[in-house]
Amino acid sequence: MDDFKAAAQDVYDFFFDVNTALLAKGLDRLDDTLRPAIMSGVLSDMLTASLAKHSRSLTVNTYFNGHPDLVVRGHYANNAAKAGAHGVEVKTTRKAGGAVDTHGAREQWMCVFVYSVDAVTEPACNRQPMSFTEIYLGQVGLADFRRNARGELGTRTATLHAQGIAKLRQNWVYRAV
Fold first, then answer.
1. In the beta sheet, which residues pair with residue 146?
2. Contact 125/90 with Cβ under 8 angstroms?
3. What is the 3-state secondary structure (H, E, C) of the chain?
4. Is the whole-model pTM more than 0.90?
């Protein structure tokens, strides 16, 4: 629990510092500047790095674009796994409940951070900071996913189906009251 709390606080501190500097220069908050997909990617990378920093047994997967994001320290040569089975995949989403697309169904530990961005309060200087509203950590399998059809130009993805997401939600780490 302390690792999750510390990782979330690292992200909050970063956004506070960056947004304070941006607003002092008359610029928009980072939360308002980044497109949702970019924001989700940035948060996933930050949380992965921070969880690794605070964890005694997990570290960042050093294989470029490898899976999972966090691997068990020392389990793979140079902590690099192209497609490893020992670690945790980290995802972020704005979707309440933690439903998130992946690049494929896998047997894996999955950690999903759900976050909220206030994009409607006016004036913008009164907006609430980005915040995490839910965190889930659970082991899921191939049978827990549905494959998403994509057109010619789309990337094939998979998402936990109703029973799979219910399974993940049973293993909540944090839910805002």
1. 159
2. no
3. CHHHHHHHHHHHHHHHHHHHHHHHCCCCCHHHHCCHHHHHHHHHHHHHHHHHHHCCCEEECCCCCCECCEEECCCCHHHCCCECCCEEEEEEECCCCCCCEECCCCCEEEEEEEEECCCCCCCHHHCCCCEEEEEEEEEECHHHEEEECCCCCCCCEEEECHHHHHHHHCCEEEECC
4. yes
Tell me the C-alpha distance between 84 and 87, whole Å.
7
Q: Give the pairing type, strands 108-116 and 87-93.
A: parallel
Query: How many Å apart are CA 94 and CA 92, to the nearest integer?
Result: 7
Q: Above 90 in pLDDT, residue 53?
A: yes
With tokens 């219910």, the residue in question is 166
Sign for the pseudo-dihedral over CA of 154, 32, 93, 67: positive
Structure tokens at 88: 């945790």
Query: What are 58-90's pLDDT values in tens digits?
Result: 999 999 999 999 999 999 999 999 999 999 999
- 102 and 140 Cβ atoms separated by less than 8 Å: no
> Which two three-digit tokens encode residue 161?
């189906």
